[in-house]
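ok here's Multidrug-efflux transporter, seq below lol
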Amino acid sequence: MYLVERWRAQGGYREALNIGLPLVVSMVSNTVMTFTDRIFLGNYSLEALGASLPANVMAFLFLSFFMGVSEYVNVFIAQYTGACRPADVGRALWVGLWFCVPSGLLLAALAFFAEPLFGLVGHPESIRRLEIVYFQILTVGSLPCLLGMCLSNFFAGRGLTKPVMLISLGSIFINIPLDYCLINGIGPFPEMGIAGAGLATVIGFIVPLIVYIRLIFTRKNEALFRVRSAWRFDHALFARFLRFGLPGGVQFFLDMFAVSFFVFIIGRFGPVELASTSAVFSIYNLAFLPTIGLHVAASIMVGQAMGDGNPDRAAFCTHSVLHIALAYMGVMAVVFWVMPEFLLNLFRPRDVTGIDFNAVLAMGGVLMRYCAVFTLLDALAIVYMGGLKGAGDTRFIMFVMGTGSIVCLVIPLLVLNGLGITSIHGPWMFLLLYVVILASTFMTRFRKGPWRRIDLIGREKPERG
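and the structure came out like this:
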């Protein structure tokens, strides 16, 4: 009876799935593209597979700050929607676009610094050369990536997540075949190896961006949301956007910095450790990234409830999303625990290379069980963080993730590296500790409820035009 009532209630399971499931599918599509990309690279060479993770992580590290800020457009649009202020939706969208354009150009300039940057990492020369190429291509593609993500918030923030899902699914049919052809030199395409993987990824950013532009900037949307006429730079709203969005960007950057540091320290252990970690992270994304879709759903639902002045409904929405996330992550934990070899064998190279894949398989099996342990903890941390973010509690999230990443990952890994300890268990145990602290802290913060008093948009008066 409880489940039936929770299904039908406003902010219940049905609404959570209507908003969250398309976002989960979108994240799954992104995960599938990343996963198949790694499989194609692993089949091509284990050196390319080993280089893809550090280069991707480094590129995403720099992107993460700007992504974390621009993502907050989603919350503003959700709260304006909940407050029945559609004319302000266009203003929020353009604030995000004004932020994304210079950010994307700045990120593209990082391609010029790739060589000295990866020279500091200390990986073998054969892997370092591949890391540089992959990183340069991904950073050049940062602008269409940011713009496309910002424009997707026009739909997602209003709870219309199906267009986001369909566009993401469509990009699969472009990216995966192109990825395979450009890596291996199929048909008219040259064999480009890891460079082909990067180029296919960038094209996968550009096509959705074009589709979003055509769908959003229409006469109908202009009449309802002022998506064209609100293009002028709004200093007051931009300052308010940065006030709440910048902590989200810093939080995302610090989290990614800790993960990047984790990957690069393991890269110093040896090629087997790096290749196995790369494969396991790729597999874990099958669980983690779809849950990010539920994290966004929690932010949207909480944002709309808070815009409507109803924090109780916001709490109810968050727990509805959490129940779904725990059910999904529980299934993934079982899969990771009982069939690690099957999943890892997807990365087995076609030809014998300088790295022994049997050693990668043995080590990867151990790491998969670490992943199985912290999947449920990740669900708690991610969903509660989404609820806090939707209410505007971004400074607390920034503080916790910044402190946790430094205390639980950066400092311990520096100590391990300084002592010359190269056991793979040390870094992964500290990663588990990091997730435990995030899950327990965000759960406690949400239940205590200081986020209920945050005013994100209430003092602003809707602009007439």
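fwiw Residues 2-453 form one domain. kinda neat tbh
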